[in-house]
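Try it yourself: sequence plus pyridoxal-5'-phosphate, in.
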Amino acid sequence: MIDDGARARLAPRTDEPAILGGPPAFTERLHVGSPNIGDRARLSERMAGILDRRWLTNDGPLVREFEEAIARFVGVRHCVAMASGTAALQIAIRVAGLVDEAVVSPLTFVATAHALRWQGVTPVFCDVDPRTHNLDPASVEDMVTPRTSGIVGVHLWGRPCAIDELTALAERRGLALIFDAAHAFGCSHRGRMIGGYGKAEVLSFHATKFVNTFEGGAIVTDDGDFAEQARLTRNHGFARYDEVKQLGTNAKMSEPAAAMGLTSLEALDDFYVANLRNYEVYRAGLDGIDGIGLIAYDEAEWCNRHYVVIEVDQSATLSRDELQRILWAENVLVRRYFFPGCHRMEPYRSELPCARRELPEAERLTDRLLALPTGTAIDPTRAAAVADLIRRAMADGPRLRRRLRGLVPARADRSKGKS
Ligand SMILES: *Cc1c(COP(=O)(O)O)cnc(C)c1O
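Structure, out:
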């Protein structure tokens, strides 16, 4: 339902923006990553089945069904479902044999770097290509040392990283290549679904992702040995009852999680359509605003468009952070994804005091990118109203900027958003 706030915003606005005391544009808060939810009745049926069977976890029938569905969709032989994307990353890093150092992008969710460190591998941050926001293969090669064991590519925003170049580089230098595909479920590269590249790829089904299992993740791969190792590691190293073959942990996906995942997959078309529609509304609504660029997606590929990200460059009348404060006051909780870069978060920041200088493109982007709300919780009317707020703020930029300087830091700086 479209609330009065959203409707009012489509009419010419006479009052002040909320940051200067006017009423907020939205009465409800608009979140980035508000969950996509499939058919409730189907989910309830599946939940009832779980209770009837008294099979709640440990490689249950829904987890197996979910793994098969994901493997089929991605077009790989194996899917090993996990309790989270982070657990899947840790296990993939371990099974891929990464040790000492691995090259990774600093422009990612911190879990990519933390998963390496958790396995005792030092993440070596490398600069990104400003056009794709993904690892720049030339900088990757510069970072390779005798201690480098592998590369962790991230398909940021669901846009494939330089898969072909990184694959060639990994082969040439004898490195393991895995991908953090947490953003990229439902996206393709050269017509093949992401998930099928490298030694293995890692998906996240966190509540905020395109498809969710509340919490969850998976390793997808064509390599049977890799999948087998991942399965053993996921379940304490158990090969069968009473037989532990190796070191392991508990990273199992539960049956309720798989129920949510299967239900989400049935609604996948709706998720694609909602995101495409919102993206097109944003594209039209933001078109021609000086200094605001919307990231582009390859029209020839499958793409979940789950991230609507704008770049606020120096020619804009307001900085990214000023725009964020203005939008938060309107109850539009845009997010500075990903700010700061991983190299500026602990423990890496203390260990790499020079990283900011060495990663100029990542530094520039982390100060400019802003993610806007999309997904099935946002309808085109709301997306249009958000774009309209941005247009008005930018048009009124010089005055807003002067007024903002006289204000104490706004809510955006103080409160923690939902992730
Ligand atoms: C969400 C995310 C993860 C972690 O996945 P979880 O399921 O939340 O543990 C890792 N990498 C990236 C890029 C992500 O966005």
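One thing you can check immediately is this: Residues 40-266 form a domain with the Aspartate Aminotransferase; domain 2 fold (CATH 3.40.640.10).
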